[in-house]
Structures are given as structure tokens and as C-alpha cells.
Amino acid sequence: MWILDIFYIMGWLAIYFAKGAWLLDLGRLSLGFGYGLTCYVAPTYLSEITPKNVRGGITSVSMAMIPVSVSVAYLIGSVINWRALALIGAIPCLLLLFGLFFIPESPRWLAKIGREKEFEAALQRLRGKNVNISEEAADIKDYTENIQKIPEDKILDLFQQKYSHLLIVAIGLMVLQQFGGLNGYAYYMNEIFELAGVPSITGFIVVSVPQIPAIALGSILIEKFGRRTLLMVSVTGECLGCFLTGLSFVLQNLNWWMEATPTLMLSGMVVFEVSYSLGIGSIPWIIISEIFPINIKGSAGSICNAVNWFCTWLVSFTFNFLVEWSPAGTFFIYGSISFLGVLFIAKLVPETKGRTLEEIQASLTHFLQ
């Protein structure tokens, strides 16, 4: 996280001081490198340090900061220029650089590499001075000892039958998160507003503000109803949001109910963004951080990141072409993918609520048999 934070700071400063396109590109590349890896590193770290009864909520809050930050950036960016926005973006990165001095290393990672005293000290610090950690420490040690009997698998080793279910779930969630249409909305929001005849500033405010209570609600509900249920509700909401957005463009093309078209389009975007913030934005990363055993976390994370960002690029690259073909059809395609995603979650995604990482991984693999 220290290394990645340096890339963030360098990226924002490169953008701020840019005099030409090459430095802007370099800044975006640096930010993309840091953000792409943080999406897996942060939830993995949080899943390894938090107790099972609050793991989902805490990780969800962390990942939910992404859409919150996007919303804040939309709002601030509507009243200041982009150089000032880049400089503001560097401030939380500097705070993180300082804050990392005060957080312990992952106890499970310390146990894996044999630093037993540091492992117990880190776990005690995380749980509190007066908490008895003996049972939890013993479970982690037993699991780590069993897992260390198996050599650490490389990326190609993941394509074995024993990992097939985990890999299908992980890659499926990454594809669903992006092909639901998020980056079509996020990267081209201004263009969508123009197509529907909505003022940009009004649209940004209407779409951004409801995301914050949705994020808070999702963080509360994730431990009450579980990952699968909240995911299915979230993806169903995305499907509805895409349908409403697509329907607004159908009415616009037919010159029907024209006075209501902007309101319908805004409603669809709000439903989509709120639904995304409720679960699909954060829960896939939470599940991925929970289901993979420690000996394949690195390799699995590399594949998941690669798939996620390839899908991000694909959606971003194709969006303009799809909209030129048919604005309504574009959002109906995204909605159809979300509908299929509900079936995928119902059939294949495991529920991980209320179980330790060791219990989850033992139930999904054959390592402890």
C-alpha cells in the first residue's frame, strides 16, 4: 500500500504540472496502476484483519469510498478547474502515506511467513489489549500449517479442477461488475445528459447525492442479509436502471411523452448508480478476498484484476460505437447482462457471511481434507 500510494501521488502531481498530453497520459497511467492494484490489495488486507462478524461491513465501507469519491469529484469538478481538482486529489494520498505508519501488517500474512511473535502481537493489537485471542490465533496457525504443506501455486496452476469453482465465481463477478454498464454511465455521463437534454450540473447533483445513503445502507445490510442476497438486489436494480434509461431514449426517438423523457432518464441513472453503490460496486471484491486460500491469493488477484480492467477498457471503448448505433439498445444490452448476472449469482456464488476465512476456504477447496 505504501508503494501504491507513491504512484497515486506521482500521478496527481504529473497531471497538475502537465504542459502537454504526454504528462497527462503519464499521470493517468500512474493513477491507473495504483488504483488497479488497490482494488484487490485493500479488500484482501481488510478481510485478513477484521473479525468475521464485521468483515463484510468494514470491507464494504472501504470499497464504497470509490463511488463516494467519484460523486465528490463530480461535484467539486463542476465548480473548479481540473488542475485544482488534481491537486485536491493528492491530499488524501498524502494522508494515507502518513496513516500507514499506524496500521499493523496482516496477521495471517505474518503467520504464513513464520513470524509468530509479530503475528500474535498484530492480532492482539487489532482485537484489543483485553481480548483473548488464543482460539482465533490457534485456528489461523492450524490452517497456515496445513496450507504451507502445499507449494504456492502460480497463475497457470489456477486452471486446475480443484480451483475451477472459485475461478468461475471470481471471473464471473468481475465481468458482471463491468459489463453491467458502470463505465458507460461514469465516463460518458455528460454525453448522456446532453442526449437526453438535461443540464450537466443538475444531472451530476441529482445522480451523485443519493449514492452516499445507498453506500451507508449497503454497509449496514451486508452482515444482516448476506453477500448473495444484497448482490442479487443490487444487480436487479442495475437491470431496472438500464431499462428505464433505455426506455427514455425509445420515447425520445418516437417523440412520445417528450416532457417526461429527461425525468425518466435521470430516474434510470439514479436507480442504476444507487443499485451499484448498494452492492455490486464492493461485494465482488469482498467475495474474491474471502474465497481464495492464502497460497493462491496473489495469482488469483492478478487474474481478477486483469479481467476487471480489460472489461473496463472494453466497455469504455465500445460505448461510443454502441450509442451511435442505438442509445436505447446500448442500455438494454447492459440491462440484459445484469439480468443474466442475477441468475449467475443465484446458482454459483457462495454465501460467506458469518464465517472465518479459514472456514470459507476449507469449505470451497480440498486443502484441509
From TrEMBL:
Protein's cellular compartments: Cell membrane
Gene3D superfamilies on file: MFS general substrate transporter like domains (1.20.1250.20)
Entry keyword annotation includes Membrane: yes
Keyword tags: Cell membrane, Membrane, Sugar transport, Transmembrane, Transmembrane helix, Transport
Main location: membrane
Residue ranges of the TM segments: 6-24, 56-76, 82-103, 166-188, 200-222, 229-251, 263-288, 300-319, 331-349
Major facilitator superfamily (MFS) profile domain ranges (all copies): 1-353
A GO term for molecular function: sugar transmembrane transporter activity
InterPro entries according to UniProt: MFS_dom (IPR020846), MFS_ERD6/Tret1-like (IPR044775), MFS_sugar_transport-like (IPR005828), MFS_trans_sf (IPR036259), MFS_Trehalose_Transporter (IPR050549), Sugar/inositol_transpt (IPR003663), Sugar_transporter_CS (IPR005829)
UniProt topology in membrane: Multi-pass membrane protein
GO cellular component: plasma membrane
Family: Belongs to the major facilitator superfamily. Sugar transporter (TC 2.A.1.1) family.
Protein name, entry field: Major facilitator superfamily (MFS) profile domain-containing protein
Origin species: Quercus rubra (Northern red oak)
